[in-house]
Amino acid sequence: MGKLDGKVALVTGSGRGIGRAIALKLASEGASLVVNDLDAAPGDAVANEIKAAGGRAVAVNGSVSEAGFADRFVGAALESFGGLDILVNNAGYTWDATIQKMTDEQFQAMLDVHLVAPFRILRAAAEPIRVMAKKEAEAGREVFRKVVNISSIAGLYGNAGQASYSSAKASLVGLTRTLCKEWGRYKVNVNCIAFGLINTRLTQPIEAQQKTIDVAGRDIKVGVQPQMLDAMARMIPLGRGGTPEEAADAVYLFCSPESNYISGQVLVCGGGLII
After folding, report:
1. E strand or H helix that includes residue 151
2. Cα(37)–Cα(272) distance, rounded to whole angstroms?
3. Within its chain, how far is the Cα of 238 from the centroid?
4. CA end-to-end span of the chain, whole Å?
5. Contact assessment for residue 12 and residue 86, using Cβ atoms and an 8 Å cutoff
6. What's the pLDDT tens digit per position in 29-66?
7. The pLDDT of residue 206
C-alpha cells in the first residue's frame, strides 16, 4: 500500500531528468500518472516503465507552451483515470544571455515555458477541481489535492546571465502564493520547490564540444562550465549537487498526506546552498 494509492498525478517534463524521477517516485507510492515530454520517445518510455512495474500511466507529449496543451493534458487525467489529485509543473529549460545580448524571443520563451504554461494548466484544472471539491464537501469528506510548482534559487536570488529565467521562476512563486489563497477553500495545497544545483543533462559539464537540445526547432546550448560547477559545489554545505531522485523526494514531500496543512510555501532543495 502506497501513500498515494488512488491518486491521479500529472507531471510536465517527465520524460527525462528530474521530471522522470518525480513521475517514478509518485508511481512507486501508488499514483496513476499522466506524463509528458516535449519529445514522444522519452515520454512514452516513462509511461511504459511505470506500466511495466505494475502501475498505471498515459503519456501526453508535446510542448507545454503550445495552445491547447493545457486542456489536452488535464483532459487526459479525467478521461483515463477519472480524477485529478496532484499537479507538478516541472517542464522547462534555460536559454541564457546577459541582458544586453538577450533577445525578446529569448525572454518570452522563458516566460512561456516557466510561467505562462503553468498558469494555463492550473486554469484548465480549476473547474474540475471546483466540481470535485464541491461534491466531496457535500458528502462531508475532506479530500486534499496538491499543486507543486518548480522554481529555482535563481528565482529567489537572481543569477547572472539569467534575467529571463530568473524573472519567470520568481513570478511562479507569486502564482503559487496566489493560488494557495484562491484554492484553499477547495482543500488544495499549493506549494513551490526551488532547486539548487541538481545534476541533469542541463547542468552537465561543458566539454570541448558544447551539447545542444532541440526546442521547437531552436538549438539551445546546455551545460555549465566545469570551473563554475566546481565553485558551486564548494559553496554547497553538503559538498555536491543533488541527484534527480533527491529532487523528486523534495517534491514528494509536498504531495504526501503529511503536507495537508502546509500551503503557500517555498522549499529550497539545494543541499544547504543559500546565495
Report:
1. strand 145-152
2. 30
3. 24
4. 40
5. no
6. 999 999 999 999 999 999 999 999 999 999 999 999 99
7. 72
What is the arithmetic mean of pLDDT over 164-191? 98
Query: What is the set of active-site residues?
Result: 165
Cβ atoms 177, 267 nearer than 8 A:
no
CA 73 – CA 71 distance, rounded (Å): 5
Cα–Cα distance, 249 to 247 (Å, whole number) = 5
150 within 8 A of 92, measured Cβ to Cβ: yes
**Percentage, residues of the chain above pLDDT 90:** 85
The structural domains of the chain, ordered by start, are: 8-199+243-269 (3.40.50.720)
224 secondary structure, DSSP code: B
CB proximity list for 230: less than 8 A, separation 6 or greater: none
Q: What are phi and psi of 174, to 5 degrees?
A: -65, -40
- Amino acid identity, position 90: N
Q: Which stretches within 58-199 are classed as H helix? A: 69-81, 104-111, 117-138, 153-157, 163-183
Mean pLDDT to the nearest integer, 145-173? 96
Per DSSP bridges, beta strands 212-215 and 145-152 are unpaired
Contacts of 15 (CB under 8 A, 6+ apart): 35, 36, 37, 38, 39, 41, 42, 43, 45, 46, 61
The residue type found at 242 is: G
In this structure, what C-alpha cell is assigned to residue 169? 521562476
Cell 489535492, residue located: 145
Rounded Cα–Cα distance for residues 205 and 258 (Å):
37
Cα gap 188→206, rounded to integer Å:
41
